[in-house]
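Notes, p. 3: input format for complexes.
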Amino acid sequence: MATRFENGIVVTLGANNQVIWNGSVVIEGENIVGVGSASDLQKQFPNAEAVDCSGKIVLPGFICAHHHFYSTMARGMAIPGEPASNFVEILERLWWKVDRALLGEDITLSAQIPLIECIRNGTTTVIDHHASPSMPDGSLDRIEEAVRQAGLRGSLCYEVSDRNVTGDGIKENERFIKKVGKGDGQIAAMMGLHASFTLSDATLEKCVGIAQDAGVGCHIHVAEDLADEEDSRNKYGMPVVHRLHKLGVTGPKSLFIHCIHIDDEEMDLIAATKTWVVHNPESNMNNAVGVTRLFDLLKRNILVGLGSDGMSSDMLSQMRCAYLLHRLANNDPRVAFLEAPKLLLENNANIAERQFGVRLGEIAEGRPADLAILDYQPPTVLNETNFLGHLIFGLVDATVDTTVCRGRILMQGKKILSMDEERIAARSRELAPQMWKRLADL
Ligand SMILES: [Zn+2]
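Output follows (442 residues plus zinc ion):
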């Protein structure tokens, strides 16, 4: 049974972006089968179920290239002890306790809640990085189940680190990577690694071996803080990107998250190995770790995507944060207008294609039916030439009304259809105090 989303403003994006007023997108099964004017498509697909999208704008679903679902239950929690004064203290006092305090059902709930928030924000594809060292085994199955229930696409991995038990989490990644295999376009797997400063050469070599045998990439934090860069220079006598390259972590399937404190030579190495970088501006500002040299990366034709790093599931807000941050950091109001949207709309689609084997980020016949439909009445002309102005200054504050992924309507009229939002939030509020108590006792 086909469905026509009609009478809205359709923005196709892709290489040949078109803005179609009174447009229509017709979907059938998991794919888009028609795009054009509402009147033409009514004639072409007269039996399709019609969904009126007047007063709305129809966009491809958004993609988040780096998330941490597991951070959910820390929301509103008082952090025991003195406030952390630097990044390593933030990890030690907050995140390395949050992940250790997560048990069974907490892992499920802390994935379900951000997945609901993804649906609310039209984010249909997420690349997640998970840690729950008190219960690593089977944790990725729980998250997979939550992603499938939500109806979204997810690339999952477990964060290997030597900080608790040497090589903790390797087995979970290996098991899950084998289980996913080539994937079904909905779930993908990567080898998750925390960061150079918590990983020995032996652990990295083992993980890279598993990843290479399975043909998947590594998903790792790189030079998020100066401490990571200095640790590599002090312990191994080389910059962090050079260390990771020597051990085989670089490459066209790997995601290097942050890359804030890297020098020109490290950038050249990232470019030469076609390794992807994911920028997380809001998280970097929150942790006060520094500003990624975005334009120096882009100048080298490095593919830079955009993530939220667990801060949010709203990718338009992350895009605008990138736009604002790089104007301020470069003291130049001429920059970032093209680049910030490009990270989200174009580069994230390229990253997702490599992961899921499907071409997302474009409304076109034959493409997957992943849509974000937002309430938006343009106050001025809206066309192909000024779409980015509407994106940065208008759509970023618009409410998502309807979210579609793989042809399934997950939210309509702002009501989540695939999950019981109220019950899930209530259960999380029930379990969170126990999780906070375990954390305080660590
Ligand atoms: Zn992260």
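The mean pLDDT is 97.
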